[in-house]
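Run log, item B.
One chain of 60 residues. Sequence copied directly from the ordering sheet:
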Amino acid sequence: MDEKVTENSQQHRFELPIADGAIAAAYYRLENGRVVLIHTEVPSEFSGQGDRIAIGARHL
């Protein structure tokens, strides 16, 4: 998988394309100059397959 995590600042989330237009998302808020991840979502068929979006979001 060569897709990259991108930031969607309007929806306060990081996004990772995973298949056929579906995305995994990690929602965040800014707190004291830090990014705090508060919720993650993936389509149910991809649930439990790792934490790549959270790891990728740390490297933006």
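Observations after the first pass:
- The chain has a mean pLDDT of 81.
- The CA atoms of residues 42 and 50 lie 11 Å apart.
Flagged for discussion on Thursday.
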